[in-house]
Each structure stands twice: as structure tokens, then as C-alpha cells.
């Protein structure tokens, strides 16, 4: 009884309480101020997409805080729940040791049982008097609390690192964009001093287009469906995007969506759309939390669920990468077939190239892959620092090493291959993305639509513009900028 009283807040030195409270408040304020200044910096640099991603991150932190509050508040009620022993005598993460009959209980088992009873906050006879056992211990709730926090932190870190590394990879394509924009115009007669440069630029452009179609559609065997998919599968591991592919897809996009603006900065547009997609990837959707619940349910000792589940993100990532590469090949084959039919041989973006005619599915799969991979690594480190490397939940070393290798492989492959592929190939859909307009134009359009709704002056034309995506050539950008 005396020991219980000494552990209460009533008998804790005031300097200890105030010191711990000061540290917690200080760290919380530093984190809040840091996020606030980061948001101001992004606003100052007009990085609206990243600012919205930061707001999404704050929402996730608020959700984590609410989960933490719920676990803390309900802890007292949960530890008083007693259930029949049969309900909590199966589906353990670790196999229970076989009990020997007529053998005295070891001192180690006595210590574990004592810790369990103390951590539940129950008296030894409270549930036993009813012929029942506690549903869960306070210690287990605390460890689950830590796991949820670690999972969210690792997910944010993995998503941010993937976007940064993928963005750096896409940034390497900038010199291709600059080369295309700085080449002399093909219209009109070039000046005498630029005649040689003009001819050289035309020759380079012709070689790039020839290389693209020859690589993807040259010869009958390259048009074979089986050969095309096999080649697409292996190509994602080396040179996922080449100069000829970038130039060809860029031309196809501009001729379809903004034919009157051949100098459109396609590279900058890709980076803007990637920033917009980041705010979707960094969030943890309800179905991802449901996935965590299902995994915790199936993580039964002897099933090796953790090991088999580690293959899922790698398999999905390889499928996504192969599909994106195959879309590039399909575009080249389509143009070659148009040439054979004496039709206009230009790349035509279409949603029909994607699964279920929905390019957005690719982003959802990448979202799930990143979350699943961060879940694998977060679960490993949580077990490592909570129970140690020799914990039964860790399983055997033969299962542990492949999981870590696959986790690193998924992170590297997604950053340097799949994500850049996604940023380029998903522009080949039937519709362009929101990032095609710069921040000023987007804000002007949103204000204009709001004013139209508020004044009740929405004509048939304005209603059509609200329902259908506006094309870059459907309005005068100079007027909007003024």
C-alpha cells in the first residue's frame, strides 16, 4: 500500500512534476513553431502544393494526438474488462511454450505473471474471483500506443525521402527540356548565321524520334505482347526514362493539350503535379489503417505473416513499373501502326492505356506501396527497441534479412525509377492535371468561379467550364496575369 501511495502524483516531488511538464511543453512548442515557420517559408517561395502537404501532415499529427488521448483516457476502463480465459488463450504473436504436467512453475514465469498483474492495475483476485482474466494489460496498451506513433513517423519520413529523391531524379531531365526549348524554330527560313545550328537541331530531333520508335516498335518481335511486357519489366531496373522517350512524350502532350504553346515548360509542370500528389501520398487513409488492423490480427506465431507480407510492396512496385514502361511502348506501337495506315503519326494520350482507364490508380498503388514498406521497417524497429533482436516476434534470422533487403530495394527502386516514371507517363492521360496552371492562374480561376456562384450569374458556358477541365488554350493567360 505504501509503495502504491509513493508512486502516485500526490506523493511525487513538485520539482519533478514541473520539470517533466516543462520539457513536454517546450518540445511541443518547438515542433509547432518549426512547422509554422516551415509553412511561412513555403508560402514565401510560393510552394503552395508543398504547403498543402504540410497542412496534411499537421492533420495526421492531430489524428495521432487524438489516438493517443483516446488510449490514455480509455486505459483505466479497458484494464477493468475481464473476459473468459478461452478468449485470450489463442492467436498469440509468439508460440506459447508447452507446459509440463506436474512441474512447478519457474521463477521466470512467476515474474512475468506478477508483472502482468501489476501492469493491468487489477488486484490478483478481481478477475479471478469471477473466474476470468484481464482483457489486456496496461503495458500492452502502452506498447501499442508507441507502435502507432512510430508507424506514422516512419511513413512521413519514407514518403518525404521518396519524393525528394524522385524529384532530384526528375530534375536531371531539366537539360533535356532546356535543349528542346532553346533549339531554333522550325518555322520560317533561318538566318544565315543560324542555318547550321538549325539543321543540326532538326537532325538531333529526328534522331531522337527515330530512336524512340525504333527502340519500342522497330521490328515484329518488339511489337509482340509477351516480348513487350518482358522488356518493360526489365527496363525499369536500368534507364527507366531516356532522352528520346522524354522528348516524344513531351511532344505528344503539347500537341494534344496546348498546341498553340510549343514552348510550354513541360518539366516544370511535371514537378508541380508531383508536389500536388505529395499531399495525397503523405496522408494515411482509412483503408491503410484498416490494413494495419488486419495485419495485427493475422500476426500469429508460426504463420510467418510478417515475412510473406514483405513481398507485397515489391510485387506491386514491379507491376506498376512494368505497366508504366509498357504504356510508353504502347504509344510507340500505336504511332507506328498509324504510319502504316497513312494516318497522322502523332502520340495520342489516352486514359485507355491505364488500368480500368483511370491513371489515378497508379498513385493509389504507390501510396499503398510506400505505406506498406514504411510499415515493415517501422514494425522491425519497434520490435527491436521494445523486445530486442532475439524476440520471438522477430522470427528467425533467415526471415529477417530478406525483409530488410526487400525494404531497402523497394525504397530505392520507387525513388529512382517508379516515381519518375509515374510523373512522366501519367501525363499521357486524356486530361491534363491541375498543375498545368501556375499558382496565380489557379487562384484567379478559383476566385472567378466563386464570384460566379455567389452572384448567381453562372451561364451555360461557366457551368460547362466547372464540369469539364479547362484547357490551356481556352482562355487568354495574359489577361489572367494582368
UniProtKB/TrEMBL annotation:
Tell me the Pfam families matching this sequence: Mlo
GO BP terms:
defense response
Residue ranges, compositional bias (Polar residues): 471-482
Q: State where the protein is found.
A: Membrane
Top-level taxon in the UniProt lineage: Eukaryota
UniProtKB keywords: Calmodulin-binding, Membrane, Pathogenesis-related protein, Plant defense, Transmembrane, Transmembrane helix
Q: Does the keyword Membrane apply?
A: yes
Any transmembrane segments, and where? 12-31, 61-81, 144-165, 281-300, 306-324, 361-384, 404-425
Residues in a coiled coil are none
Cross-referenced InterPro entries, in alphabetical order? Mlo
Give the residue ranges for region: Disordered. 453-482
Comment, domains? The C-terminus contains a calmodulin-binding domain, which binds calmodulin in a calcium-dependent fashion.
What does the UniProt record say this protein does?
May be involved in modulation of pathogen defense and leaf cell death.
Question: Which family does the entry's similarity section mention?
Answer: Belongs to the MLO family.
Protein name as catalogued:
MLO-like protein
Give the source lineage, highest ranks first: Eukaryota, Viridiplantae, Streptophyta, Embryophyta, Tracheophyta
Q: Which gene encodes it?
A: MLO
Amino acid at each position: 500500500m505504501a509503495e502504491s501511495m509513493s508512486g502516485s502524483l500526490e506523493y511525487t516531488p513538485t520539482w519533478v512534476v514541473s520539470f517533466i511538464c516543462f520539457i513536454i511543453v517546450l518540445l511541443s512548442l518547438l515542433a509547432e513553431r518549426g512547422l509554422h515557420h516551415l509553412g511561412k517559408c513555403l508560402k514565401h517561395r510560393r510552394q503552395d502544393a508543398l504547403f498543402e502537404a504540410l497542412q496534411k501532415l499537421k492533420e495526421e499529427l492531430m489524428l495521432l494526438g487524438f489516438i493517443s488521448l483516446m488510449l490514455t483516457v480509455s486505459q483505466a476502463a479497458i484494464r477493468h474488462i475481464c473476459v473468459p480465459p478461452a478468449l485470450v488463450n489463442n492467436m498469440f504473436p509468439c508460440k506459447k511454450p508447452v507446459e509440463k504436467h506436474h512441474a512447478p512453475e519457474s521463477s521466470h514465469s512467476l515474474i512475468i505473471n506478477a508483472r502482468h498483474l501489476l501492469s493491468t492495475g487489477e488486484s490478483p483476485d478481481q478477475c479471478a474471483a469471477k473466474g476470468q482474466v484481464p482483457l489486456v494489460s496496461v503495458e500492452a496498451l502502452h506498447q501499442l500506443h508507441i507502435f502507432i506513433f512510430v508507424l506514422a513517423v516512419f511513413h512521413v519520413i519514407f514518403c518525404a525521402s521518396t519524393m525528394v529523391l524522385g524529384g532530384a531524379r526528375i530534375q536531371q531531365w531539366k537539360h533535356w527540356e532546356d535543349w528542346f526549348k532553346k533549339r531554333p524554330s522550325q518555322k520560317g527560313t533561318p538566318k544565315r548565321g543560324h542555318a547550321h545550328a538549325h539543321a543540326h537541331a532538326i537532325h538531333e530531333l529526328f534522331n531522337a524520334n527515330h530512336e524512340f520508335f525504333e527502340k519500342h516498335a522497330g521490328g515484329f518481335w518488339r511489337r509482340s505482347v509477351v516480348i513487350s511486357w518482358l522488356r518493360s519489366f526489365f527496363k525499369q531496373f536500368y534507364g527507366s526514362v531516356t532522352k528520346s522517350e522524354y522528348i516524344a512524350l513531351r511532344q505528344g502532350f503539347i500537341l494534344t493539350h496546348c498546341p498553340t504553346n510549343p514552348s510550354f515548360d513541360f518539366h516544370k509542370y511535371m514537378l508541380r503535379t508531383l508536389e500536388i500528389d505529395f499531399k495525397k501520398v503523405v496522408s494515411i487513409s482509412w483503408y491503410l489503417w484498416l490494413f494495419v488492423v488486419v495485419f495485427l490480427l493475422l500476426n500469429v506465431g508460426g504463420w510467418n505473416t510478417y515475412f510473406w507480407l514483405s513481398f507485397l510492396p515489391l510485387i506491386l512496385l514491379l507491376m506498376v513499373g512494368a505497366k508504366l514502361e509498357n504504356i510508353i511502348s504502347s504509344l510507340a506501337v500505336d504511332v507506328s501502326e498509324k504510319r502504316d495506315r497513312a494516318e497522322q503519326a502523332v502520340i495520342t494520350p489516352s486514359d485507355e492505356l491505364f488500368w480500368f482507364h483511370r491513371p489515378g490508380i497508379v498513385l493509389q498503388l504507390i501510396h499503398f506501396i510506400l505505406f506498406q514498406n514504411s510499415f515493415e521497417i517501422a514494425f522491425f524497429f519497434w520490435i527491436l527497441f521494445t523486445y530486442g533482436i532475439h524476440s520471438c516476434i522477430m522470427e528467425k534470422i533467415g526471415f529477417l534479412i530478406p525483409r530488410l533487403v526487400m525494404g531497402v530495394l523497394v525504397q530505392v527502386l520507387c525513388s529512382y525509377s517508379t516515381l519518375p516514371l509515374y510523373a512522366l507517363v501519367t501525363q499521357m492521360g486524356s486530361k491534363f492535371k491541375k498543375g498545368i496552371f501556375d499558382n496565380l492562374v489557379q487562384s484567379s480561376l478559383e476566385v472567378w468561379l466563386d464570384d460566379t456562384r455567389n452572384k448567381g450569374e453562372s451561364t451555360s458556358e461557366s457551368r460547362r467550364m466547372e464540369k469539364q477541365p479547362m484547357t490551356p488554350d481556352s482562355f487568354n493567360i495574359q489577361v489572367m496575369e494582368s
